[in-house]
Amino acid sequence: MILSDKDILKLINENKLIIEPFNREHLGPASYDVTLGNEFIVYEDEVYDLFNDLNYKRIKIKNSILICPINYNLTEEKIEYFKEKYNVDYVSKAILGTTNEYIELPNDITSFYQGRSSLGRLFLTSHQTAGFIDAGFRGKITLEIVAHDKPVILYPNMRIGQLIFFKLNSPAEIGYCEKKNSKYAYQRTVMPSLIKRDFIK
């Protein structure tokens, strides 16, 4: 069952569902809009070797970030041009971002993250395959941001996507953050892939 605005508010008022910060204006008929944080991760590896730690750098922006399509010919000259013309803090291709919102789901509620329709109409996706949020999850949502057509400028605190909440028929016996092998429990910032842990015995 998809939760309505009334259901979401009831759970929040009962402290069974946590969304921090919570903005009543971001509550839709059956969803809640989340906003873009100002912290990002850019991978630096030539090849993603899943058996080893991935190399990346963390970026924090003040004004804006420009995301270019993966096949875009992004030269140093282009980067400087974009920075000067559009006053952006950083220029990148595919990048990991995060929501401002920290959420806590009870063991009988799961959620899906869905990118905004307005951004989809610009051929920008803010998640690739990881839109599902398991029951019992606690943390911020990491976003896999890719532009598919033209460069897109994104701004901190803009509405980037929405959460849709679902009620389970019965509570999970072990919630996401209660599992010993949960990689992304309680994340408070953007997190890189921790898939290497799958190979550690």
From TrEMBL:
* SUPFAM superfamilies in the record: dUTPase-like
Q: Where is this site: Important for bifunctional activity?
A: 131-132
Q: Which EC number(s) are documented for this chain?
A: 3.5.4.30
* Keywords linked to the UniProt accession: Hydrolase, Nucleotide metabolism, Nucleotide-binding
InterPro entries, A to Z: dCTP_deaminase, dUTPase-like_sf, dUTPase_trimeric
Amino-acid positions noted as binding dCTP in the UniProt annotation, renumbered to this chain: 116-121, 134, 142-144, 162, 176, 183, 187
Q: Where is the active site?
A: 144 (proton donor/acceptor)
MF term (GO), any: dCTP deaminase (dUMP-forming) activity
A Pfam family in this protein? Answer: DCD
- Name the pathway: Pyrimidine metabolism; dUMP biosynthesis; dUMP from dCTP: step 1/1
List the GO biological process terms: dUMP biosynthetic process; dUTP biosynthetic process
What does the record give as the reaction this protein catalyses?
A: dCTP + 2 H2O = dUMP + NH4(+) + diphosphate
Its top-level enzyme class, in one word, is hydrolase
Which stretches are transmembrane? Answer: none
Asked if Nucleotide-binding is a keyword of the record, the answer is yes
Function, as annotated, reads: Bifunctional enzyme that catalyzes both the deamination of dCTP to dUTP and the hydrolysis of dUTP to dUMP without releasing the toxic dUTP intermediate.
Quote the subunit structure annotation: Homotrimer.
Q: Which family does it belong to?
A: Belongs to the dCTP deaminase family.
Q: Which HAMAP family match?
A: dCTP_deaminase
What protein name is recorded for this chain?
dCTP deaminase, dUMP-forming
Which organism is this entry from? Methanocaldococcus villosus KIN24-T80
